[in-house]
Design goal:
With 130 residues, this protein is an alpha+beta fold. It is built from four helices and six strands; from the N terminus they run βαβααββββα. The longest helix is centred in the first third of the chain and has 10 residues. The mean pLDDT is 89. The structure holds zinc ion.
């Protein structure tokens, strides 16, 4: 039995770990399905040969990724929802309230609408549960 008809040479692609906000933005801008954890974006050899909507979206929000992909002569950019989303909710060991640690390693308590809770921060430093 032969199960394989044909194999294709793999396309050069640039994998990008993306935050949930980034994925949402892309999905909306490119009319992709919103709930997907992975979005393939085909690009051309240069900005001019890239689909207009794709080019506009990438230049506006993902310029560095777009530049890198063009430099690497990629055919696709693969945006993947990152597993370790730094925005995920942590809980403070001290008080049990929501907290977050930003990309600089600074921890803050956050209140219900996701903004920094300065009152709790003034009381004690937020320490994440392991
Ligand atoms: Zn606390």
């Amino acid at each position: 039995m032969n199960y394989v008809l044909e194999t294709f040479s793999p396309a050069q692609h640039l994998p990008v770990n993306t935050t949930s906000d980034g994925m949402k933005l892309l999905a909306e801008a490119l009319n992709e399905k919103q709930d997907s954890n992975i979005i393939f974006v085909a690009i051309g050899e240069c900005e001019e040969s890239t689909d207009e909507l794709v080019c506009k979206t990438l230049k506006e929000h993902f310029q560095s990724v777009f530049t890198e992909a063009l430099d690497e002569e990629c055919e696709f950019i693969v945006f993947m929802l990152s597993d370790d989303d730094s925005e995920k909710t942590l809980y403070c060991t001290e008080c049990g309230n929501d907290m977050k640690i930003d990309e600089n390693g600074i921890s803050n308590h956050i209140d219900n609408d996701g903004s920094i809770d300065y009152e709790l921060d003034a009381d004690h430093v937020a320490i994440a549960e392991e």
